[in-house]
Amino acid sequence: MTIAAPQQQRTMPPYLQFLLTRKLPCAALAFTLFTAMFWLPGALAGVPLLAVLFSLLAVVAHFTTPALFAVIQLGGGSSFVVPVALISSVGVAAIGNFNLLLVTLFLLLYVAIPAWSVTTLRQHGGLARSGQQLAVTLFVAILCSLALGANAHNSGSMQAYMASLLQPLFTSITTQSNHDTSAIQSTLALAAPGLIAVGMWSMWWGAILAARWMANRYGFYHDSYFHWYYVRFSPRAALLMLVALVPANFASGDLQFAAIALSVLLAGMFAVQGTAVAHLWLKMRNMSLMLGVMYVALFFWSILIIPFVVVGLLDTWFDFRRNAIPEEGEK
Predict the structure, then answer these.
(1) 209, 228 Cβ separation under 8 angstroms
(2) What is the DSSP letter of 330?
(3) What residue segments make up the domains of the chain, in order of their start?
């Protein structure tokens, strides 16, 4: 079954055409977005309120970079993405004192992964597969980075290396409050990789979906189109989460560390699926107020995400949305 994309297309503004269809302007835009966190927060450092605002804008701009490369992958393909990435990487190298690691992270996380994932998104069943593919890639990248860091710094384990990265934060807290924070630090070191992976997965997958929306809006997306609330991840991913919970609770060392990270990441994915089930159920019944209340409650009481994880896991096997008709219609 292929779902026809919505036909509400618009003409792309001239300034967007200029930025997105020419290699040099597009590379300049990519460089500006990626490096915004380096220079934008200090633009008005003397005015505290504006400094905070500019810092937030810098974060938003920085994490728009994956969406940019996803958009130009949809519009121009690899023949356009590769030269734009190489040109912008020269600027990234220059501003980072030619740090090879920074350039590698830029090309891998902000260019290659979004371009690859959005290509998967275009395929049949690509909504779920792009999310799963992205999760696996980010999980492996984060664990490999921690393993390499632990080895380079002779930390003994990935958890010890993660704790050392968090040490400056807790040193400041201990100095100011005179409280022993070692237990909190140890717990956070265990949870941090999974939380980082969930955060990155949410932003990257959101960026890819935003890129598809933009491509469809301006008429250069012609493949199957499901809204995010039709996502249904593989039963194997659900089974993997249940299996990972065993070493996460009963193992020790790096095995437990990796299992906790994987469990948290998969829980985040199935929380999205559970939220999608609730969203569609309320949307089909025109319960817009309750839909708003649900998201407000999730924002202020994050503990409420647990029931959505359970719903997402159950939906994997029972398919609660099997009778829902996609709003774009079938073709």
Answers:
(1) yes
(2) B
(3) 227-331
Alpha-carbon gap, residue 218 to 16, rounded angstroms: 11
Between CA 47 and CA 233 the distance in angstroms is 46
- In three-state secondary structure terms, 237 is helix
Give the count of beta carbons closer than 10 Å to the beta carbon of residue 282: 18
Q: Which long-range contacts (CB under 8 A, 24 or more apart) does 214-218 make?
A: 214/67, 214/71, 215/71, 215/74, 215/75, 216/5, 216/6, 216/9, 217/8, 217/9, 217/10, 218/9, 218/10, 218/11, 218/12, 218/16
Beta carbons within 10 angstroms of residue 313's beta carbon: 23
Beta partners for 3? 330
Q: Could you tell me if 76 and 63 are in contact, meaning their C-beta atoms sit under 8 angstroms apart? A: no
What DSSP letter does each residue of 25-65 carry, written as one string?
A: HHHHHHHHHHHHHHHSTTTTTTSHHHHHHHHHHHHHHHTTH
pLDDT in tens, 217-264: 999 998 888 899 999 999 999 999 999 999 999 999 999 999 999 999
CA distance 315 to 260: 23
Return the sign of the alpha-carbon dihedral for residues 240, 151, 200, 271: positive
CB 225 within 8 A of CB 156: no
- pLDDT tens for residues 31-56? 999 999 888 877 666 667 777 888 88
Distance in angstroms (rounded) separating the CA atoms of residues 258 and 262? 6
Q: Residue 227: which region, alpha, beta or left (left: phi > 0; alpha: psi -120 to 50)?
A: beta
CA distances from 217 to 5, 72, 278 (A): 10, 14, 26
Contacts of 159 (CB under 8 A, 6+ apart): 186, 189, 190, 253, 254, 257
Separation CA 68–CA 64 (nearest Å): 6
CA distance 266 to 244: 9
DSSP per position, 100-136: HHHHHHIIIIIIIHHHHHHHHHTSTTHHHHHHHHHHH
